[in-house]
Amino acid sequence: MQLYNSLTKKVEEFKPLNPDVVTMYTCGPTVYDYQHIGNFRTFMSSDFVHRVLKYNGYKVKFIMNITDVGHLTGDNLGDADLGEDRLELAADREGKSAKEIAEFYTQDFMKSYDKLNILRPEKFTRASDYIKEMLALIKTLEAKGFTYRTSDGIYFDTSKVGDYGKLAGTKVDLVEEGARFEPNPEKKNPTDFSLWRFSPDSKIRWQEWDSPWGRGFPGWHIECSAMAIEELGPTIDIHMGGEDHKMIHHPNEMVQSECVTGKPFVDYWMHTAFLKVDGGRMGKSVGNAYILDDLETKGFTAFDLRYFYTLAHYRTKLNFTWEALQASASALKKLYDMVESYQEDPEATISPEYLNKFEAAIGDDVNIPQAVAVMWDMLKSDIPEGSKLKTLEKFDEVLGLNIVDHIGYEVPADIENLAKLRWEYRKNGIWDKADVIRKQIEAQGFVIEDLVNAYKVKRK
């Protein structure tokens, strides 16, 4: 199995620290608002990696964090130490407590996560549950001489680490201050970052804790280090996230973790490319930060979106358009229709030819688009239908399209009887009654496709 490592900028043979258990961490949502389809592209990429690991026989100890404190709005401007806490801001906006905000948007995230058939991690870790661990890491960094105090908090001194920024692939410590938007004049270096922020005197926060340095709250970066080290150990096999984390968040996560433990923090860093919308950026200000509910309102399903995510390799930008989503929905419907029309054969076996091609694709840096291409080639081949079904079942361990639900499918008798009655009404021109029955059938999760001299009942 080959994986592209963002740290070395190379495709490498995957060699886990423990041959039996792979440790994996994915940066999860900041739960101050709904998660849009760009966020879910990263979570889907993580799911494909997770599924490929399990397919290859690994037990995976997978953790995803829920950021419910300390993520400031300045991150959108290139500096995660500026602006207001996203949870506090949302609480003010909606007239709720930060805890209520976090719980509401966490549950909404979970609902969409499950609809998209993304495998759940071993544990979702909430940042606010790991304050004690964060304080312990900061104390260790302080004892080792990596921190200093300013009027607004405790900062990490990046000048103390010679290779800071190696993950970003550039000399981050030489980035001009102008690129970091209104820099804190008390910072010793432009790239220094906060570990602990003091609560402002002018406002009582919803979330704040006592610390050896003063009452306040954690910086965003220290949270992931604390959760990852506590749950997975000092060195993790795979750490995933969006490509926007590669320049600031992940380099900071890496450097503070390694300065605490004295060990490499992550062996394989993996980053998912951005999702574009209509060829441009996605954003609330643009009005195109679509969420799953927006898609469902237009008649699409979560599986239509899941199939759409398979169209581009995780390291390649993917462009969302409604036309592209419709094409994905049509392709998925075609797949389900083919599966429903095939005859099962208990004696059938998996096709070794196409299985080998599929495994070569997923083993090549989790190349899901190529794996899907192999699937369609297999469906177009002349191998027996029973073998196609058996092979599809194996493929779906990675693709997660719930293909098995469409194998050996039969229309329930009551639905078939309604369809026959509707057909008689249509033949006799009784269109109003035919339309009433059509709506009854659709209300029970089925649709009727009218052919030239016949009809076909399908699932929605």
Tell me what the structure shows.
With 460 residues, this protein is α/β, with parallel strands linked by helices. The protein folds into three domains: 2-272, HUPs (Rossmann fold, 3-Layer(aba) Sandwich), CATH 3.40.50.620; 277-406, Anticodon-binding domain of a subclass of class I aminoacyl-tRNA synthetases (Four Helix Bundle (Hemerythrin (Met), subunit A)); 413-459. The chain is built from 14 helices and 15 strands. Strands 5-4-3-10-11 form a five-stranded parallel sheet. It is globular, with a radius of gyration of 26 Å. Mean pLDDT is 92; it is low at 173-181.
Hey, roughly how much beta strand do the residues contain?
15-25%
Q: Label the CATH architecture of the largest domain.
A: 3-Layer(aba) Sandwich
Mean pLDDT: 92
How many strands, which pairing sense, and closed or not: the largest β-sheet? 5 strands, parallel
End-to-end separation in angstroms reads 37 Å
Structural class: alpha/beta
- Total domain count: 3
**Tally of contiguous helical segments:** 14
- Element-level helix/strand string: EEEHEHHEHEEEEHEHEEHHEHHHHHHEE
Described by the principal axes of the CA atoms, the overall outline is globular
Number of strands: 15
